[in-house]
Amino acid sequence: MSRLDNDIFLRALLREPTPRTPIWLMRQAGRYLPEYRETRKRAGSFLALCKNPALACEVTLQPLARFDLDAAILFSDILTVPDAMGLGLYFIEGEGPKFERPLTEEWEIRNLAAPDPHAELRYVTDAVAEIRRALGGSAPLIGFSGSPWTLACYMVEGGSSADYHKAKMLAYARPDLMHHILDITTQAVIAYLNAQIESGAQAAMVFDSWGGTLSEAAYCEFSLHYLQRIAAGLIREREGRRVPSIVFAKGGGLWLEALAASGFDALGLDWTMDMGRARALVGGRVALQGNLDPAVLLAAPEIVAVEANRVLDAFGPHPGHVFNLGHGISQYTPPENVAALVDAVHAYRPEKC
Amino acid sequence: MSRLDNDIFLRALLREPTPRTPIWLMRQAGRYLPEYRETRKRAGSFLALCKNPALACEVTLQPLARFDLDAAILFSDILTVPDAMGLGLYFIEGEGPKFERPLTEEWEIRNLAAPDPHAELRYVTDAVAEIRRALGGSAPLIGFSGSPWTLACYMVEGGSSADYHKAKMLAYARPDLMHHILDITTQAVIAYLNAQIESGAQAAMVFDSWGGTLSEAAYCEFSLHYLQRIAAGLIREREGRRVPSIVFAKGGGLWLEALAASGFDALGLDWTMDMGRARALVGGRVALQGNLDPAVLLAAPEIVAVEANRVLDAFGPHPGHVFNLGHGISQYTPPENVAALVDAVHAYRPEKC
Fold first, then answer.
1. pLDDT means per 10 residues in chain B (353 residues)?
2. For an interface test with B, which of A272, A291, A302 has the most B Cβ atoms less than 10 Å from its Cβ?
3. Whole-prediction pTM
4. Considering CB atoms only, which of B216, B296, B326 is closest to A272?
5. What's the first-to-final CA gap in chain B, in angstroms?
6. Under a CB-based contact definition with an 8 Å cutoff, are residues B241 and B1 in contact?
7. What's the rounded Cα separation, in Å, for the pair B331 and B27?
8. A255 and B272 in contact (C-beta within 8 Å)?
9. Residue B154 annotated among the catalytic residues of the structure
10. Which of A43, A73, B175, B243 has a beta carbon 3.0–4.6 Å from A48's, enabling a disulfide?
11. Nearest-CA distance from B223 to chain A in Å?
12. What is the full DSSP assignment across A214-229?
């Protein structure tokens, strides 16, 4: 087994007891940190930063140098897979991601192929290996991917959307084509995550950012089904350790039971679901990760502490909680509030029940 | 009692048996209709259309002339109340609503006052009266307002927002100020809805579009509490008839039980909550309105019928269902698909159980 000085994040994901609740933050390497903005400037663009393993490694480690966090997460974008499929990812400042060649024609969909993660996505596996070396066993590294439905939304829309109506229209009007996109993308995501694990990622996380925009029936058909396939296809053990898997389902609070049965070790919750209710519903089957509203980090440090304790109290004195935000950290977050949050979570000692 | 040829919408809201499931559609008077686009062009702008009672009446009736709908809804905007409070509502094409004078300073918040609905909002009560006359008892008229939290979001942000972080920051950092905004706005909404009822609205609906962006604890404190005050403050009977009340809570599927106890006669559901589950949870206490995903209306008519039947089947053969979309109709909807939807709902006869 490779050296790992702090494994409480991995143990909490497997619902093993830990001396305290581990914490990391979605998008913890990001624009709220001045050192990130400096590196990004040096890289020239967000995408150049993602595609440069040395710089991706540098920004991945920045939040761990500042805060006593219990995990690092690969710095990358969720849209690397469709980019590697040839869709041509690019970013316009303030507008979010775009594709040069979104899927608009049937032949384009029929021609989709899963990329070789060791070729087109080599910059990612190189970054993973470099980050692992740089971490030197101080904290575990999380690899990640977007979910098939989430990737398909961007691939069909060509970018972000208020309501993903093009993606949904395709799903309702031509389910055969949508399922083809989802099938190929699922194969790609499994290969991609496993390549990250083989390169050193010690946990794997899938972001289902847009599953929550679907009806329950459509969610089961177009998102959950493919999440189950991913959970079943992931490498379960590596370097003598279990590689826990997490699915973050934004808006998935309505479908917790189905998600808990999907095969992932842990569910990431957005901030709308009460953590106590979630634990009561599914805490016996999966670990839970979350779920402070990122907006709380815009208030004063003492309010951050109160609200963090509220989430911790709601989960209660049980194993299986990884503290996190309910969504990515806001770029407007004062870094000192992150310090206050990490302190509050570290200081927390649940009442014994 | 005033003449009303078709009262199945009002009866379903009170969970009385009806010969079939009534249907109307959120934003049924809107851009998907060529006749609406023509009237709006004539008005000059969206806001000019809202503020002209004769034109507002004209567009309110347009969908009922085309489709056999069971209710009309006042054509207006949810932000008329803050506009009447002096914030200066305006629209930029493609960007959604904006305020010239959003609430940024404490003194601006302290100076807020509830407008007199018969003065600053006279154009709304005049429109309600004109629409009632024009309907001539053929279908009931719904009046509406935004919820206090939803209005406060726009008032603080100055427009739409991806995450409403300014409004949330104020709620977390200065709850006293946010509660002041919500208190004044609640008084204004009650007076506004009661003025609509006195002018002829036969049901009252509150749109809580952004409550679903809050954590459960924050939802109870900043949205639900004020919804309860509104439900308690509404005129309950008029013209010898009950005036049913509806609260539409986007993203409120997680809090159905609390919403069902809030005092409204009916809950409007977005499309993410399964209608059968919702009925099982709260159908014994409130009527339910919804909840087809508006994106379904972008597929072929036969798919519209299949998906509409799925919602109807999920609710089952019980009283207390008003068919609707789970959100406003998309501007890209082909009108013939709306016809297919109305036909499918009219043709539906549940299996007796």
1. 94 97 98 98 96 98 98 98 98 90 97 97 98 98 98 96 93 97 98 98 97 96 98 97 98 96 98 98 97 97 97 96 98 97 94 54
2. A272
3. 0.96
4. B216
5. 35
6. yes
7. 9
8. no
9. yes
10. A43
11. 13
12. S-HHHHIIIIIHHHHH
